[in-house]
Model the fold of this input.
Amino acid sequence: MDLDSHQQWLIDFYQQRGWYELSPFIRLNFLTEEVGELSRAVRAIKLGRDHPGEPIATPADLQANLEEELADVLDQVLVMSAKMDVDPQQLLTASEAKLKARFHIN
Done:
């Protein structure tokens, strides 16, 4: 699946549930929540997590959780992009152009 196809699938999915109509300010809160969950997943991998209410996770569990949280962050960015009428492909182009200009790379 490519980025554009996934973004359209997300928009359709969110519209079916009435989530797409939420404002960009609310969407930003969801993005912030997902970034926090990503932070927790990275911490668990890099520093460990010692919580008595949680089972000890295997390396495979930790990796799966990391991938899930990265996907959740990406999904929120794609939904926010659609809400703000920004083409995600343009984001990729702009990111690369900015870094090339900043670091004088051809």
User: Anything to note?
Assistant: Helices lie at 3-16, 24-46, 59-83, 88-102. The longest helix spans residues 59-83. The radius of gyration is 17 Å.
